[in-house]
Amino acid sequence: MFKANVHITLRKSILDPKGKAAHNALHNLGMKNVNRVRIGKFIELDIDAKSEEEARDIAENACSQLLANEVMEDFDIEIKKIST
Questions:
Q1: pLDDT for 84
Q2: Are strands 73-81 and 2-10 parallel, antiparallel or unpaired?
Q3: For residue 33, which of 43, 41, 23 has the smallest C-alpha distance?
Q4: The domain containing residue 69 runs over which residues?
């Protein structure tokens, strides 16, 4: 059994209105040292697979087919073996 931790973020070329709003709010709270905010998604998948490579393939397919919009978003996958 493997756990896939997936971080999905907007591509750098895509405007991030939520990140901009959070950035402005942080500045209004006095946190002037925060220079930029980008907001994304974090998804955990528990995957029953025989190998780390198979688990990564399954996670990549899940991201490509459903979890991420590859036109606007990038994703990063971290695979960890977990005990059953």
A1: 64
A2: antiparallel
A3: 23
A4: 2-81
Domain containing residue 25: CATH number? 3.30.1280.10
Measure CA of the first residue to CA of the last residue in the chain; give whole Å: 6
Cβ count within 10 A of residue 65? 9
Give me the numbers of helices (H) and strands (E) for the chain, helices first please: 2, 3
Please state the pTM of the whole predicted model.
0.85
Distance from C-alpha of 8 to C-alpha of 41, rounded to nearest angstrom: 5
- Share of residues in the chain with pLDDT > 90 (%): 98
Give the whole-angstrom CA distance, residue 44 versus residue 47.
Answer: 10
- Structure tokens given for 56: 């990564």
Domain count, the chain: 1
Give mean pLDDT, residues 45-61. 97
